[in-house]
Design goal:
homodimer, 251 residues, alpha/beta, 60s Ribosomal Protein L30, Chain: A, Alpha/beta knot, 2 domains, 10 helices, 35% helix
Chain lengths: 251, 251
């Protein structure tokens, strides 16, 4: 049986379904090592299977065997085991390029929920963020649920884990990024944001948000909401800001 | 054991946790009929319990009994059984008011996923939509998972189920609404939207979106995205548009 904890320590991961498999096949950071496919899905997958490197075995198993190997009921009929490319380039190298191109990066601090992590990657990818930076309290984006919710974008959007929010900020500051710290109590309204330097969008934990000290030191940004609720989901809130930043970069 | 299917036919529902309970206590459309609470949570809940109507019993049970009654492991230590107010006002009556006030309503067509349904209500509520209208193919917003993901807003934001998208449109057209049909292939870009008449935001199914015939007949709206992905979650996409409409209504 595939155990999540046996995989993640080795940089391994499980990709489920064709949408995620497509991202895996596009990925320059991860490569498939083996596939497990239901017999009934083989025909529909033939084009994708033809694009696999020659040394990647495709195992075919009936549903009952399939579910026992996976350790959970598999609805999508295709699983890939993948590993990080050893020669994958340093994800930080893309940050300099993003900075020079006026791009956006996302910094997640203390994001502990795999659904939110996956949704954040999906939204960052849809709106063309250059990378996601994670502080050391974040959950693992390569966890199965996060991969699925991200529709596989954790495999294609560069990310790196880099200590505390303050440490991450020091790396970004040198490259010319402006920090935008998202908070319901932010002092700037999103609608007043104009195009400008490359931006690093900092997001806090689901519960407590970013620390007060961090918010005081940086430009803090709020999304206007109807009264009575300050309760947008963190990934949804990020989507609204990332969409606006995308509009500003592409007028 | 509480069975979802035994409840929903009677207009009954299960509210889990304090966040949802707070919405239930604010709701004018639903009322609590009984509560089930873990002993350890009683003190923390005392203020809320004091606000319950006198005829609502509060049952206290240890964890093992609690989970057996609920039929699932309960992490939040408080469950409420609630029912629709018989005298609750017609949710359609609010539509005329919304139309006169230049407000926004959301129309969901074929939304079959409870997470997306819950997230849609949460976003509609956060950005001050007046109501959610559901076509007859939508899943039930009063399903437990949808209630939880909505952070209880399905209990406070008026909604009604009203036949097909076309039938819903005929009700709204009479009241002076403009239809905005959300689609990745929309002919208007969200950034070109200006303040105007009251808007009805139509959202399609997760898979296929709104029908082509419907899109041809109405103003269709797209959200700008980076190339290569047209894959924003439907509730997230709605949040981006609802936020913009909120900004336009509150300049």
């Amino acid at each position: 049986m595939v155990r999540e904890r046996d995989l993640t320590g080795r940089g391994g991961l499980i990709a489920e379904g064709t949408v995620v498999l497509d991202q895996l096949l596009r990925s320059r950071r991860f490569r498939p090592r083996s596939l497990l496919v239901l017999p009934a899905r083989l025909d529909g997958l033939s084009e994708r299977l033809a694009r696999l490197p020659r040394d990647v075995p495709v195992y075919v198993a009936e549903s009952a065997v399939f579910d026992r190997i996976a350790g959970f009921p598999v609805h999508r009929g295709v699983l890939a085991y993948a590993e990080r490319h050893e020669e994958a380039s340093d994800p930080l190298s893309g940050l300099r390029e993003a900075a020079e191109g006026g791009g956006t990066v996302v910094v997640a601090c203390g994001l502990s929920n795999h659904d939110n992590m996956g949704a954040l990657f999906r939204n960052a990818s849809v709106f063309g963020a250059a990378a996601v930076l994670l502080d050391d309290r974040c959950c693992d984006p390569l966890y199965r649920k996060a991969i699925r919710v991200s529709v596989g974008t954790v495999l294609t959007l560069p990310f790196v884990r880099l200590g505390s929010a303050g440490e991450i900020w020091r790396s970004l500051e040198e490259l010319g990024f402006e920090a935008l710290a998202l908070s319901p109590a932010g002092t700037s309204d999103l609608r007043d944001l104009r195009s400008g330097p490359p931006r690093a969008l900092f997001l806090g934990t689901e519960g407590e948000g970013l620390g007060e000290a961090f918010l005081r030191r940086h430009r803090s940004l709020r999304v206007a909401m109807a009264s009575g609720l300050d309760s947008l989901n963190v990934a949804t809130c990020a989507a609204i800001v990332l969409h606006r930043l995308y509009e500003l970069r592409n007028p």
